[in-house]
Amino acid sequence: AADGAVGLRLADGLRAARDAIDSGAAATVLERWVAATQR
Fold first, then answer.
1. Cβ(17)–Cβ(33) under 8 Å?
2. Residue 2 backbone phi and psi in degrees, to 5
3. Pure H helices in 1-39
4. Which long-range contacts (CB under 8 A, 24 or more apart) does 28-33 make?
5. Is the predicted pLDDT of residue 2 greater than 70, yes or no?
6. CB within 8 A of 28, min separation 6: which ones?
7. How crowded is residue 8: how many other Cβ atoms within 10 Å of its Cβ?
8. Which residues contact 20 (CB under 8 A, 6 or more apart)?
């Protein structure tokens, strides 16, 4: 991924995590995001 895409992915990941906290699924979203960033 391009460096710019990593920044966007980080912002999207944080936004998704914030939304997931409200729905009680934060752990799952964070696990997916971490896995995606380690590819």
1. yes
2. -70, 155
3. 3-23, 26-37
4. none
5. no
6. 20
7. 11
8. 26, 28, 29, 30
pLDDT at residue 14, rounded to an integer = 86
pLDDT tens column, 10-37: 888 888 878 777 666 777 878 888 899 8
For the chain, the residue count is 39
| 1 has a pLDDT exceeding 60 | no
Residue type, 32: R
Q: Which residue has the tokens 């997931």?
A: 20
- What are the boundaries of each domain within the chain? 3-34
pTM, full prediction: 0.40
| DSSP secondary structure letter of residue 24 | T
Whether 20 contacts 26, CB under 8 Å: yes
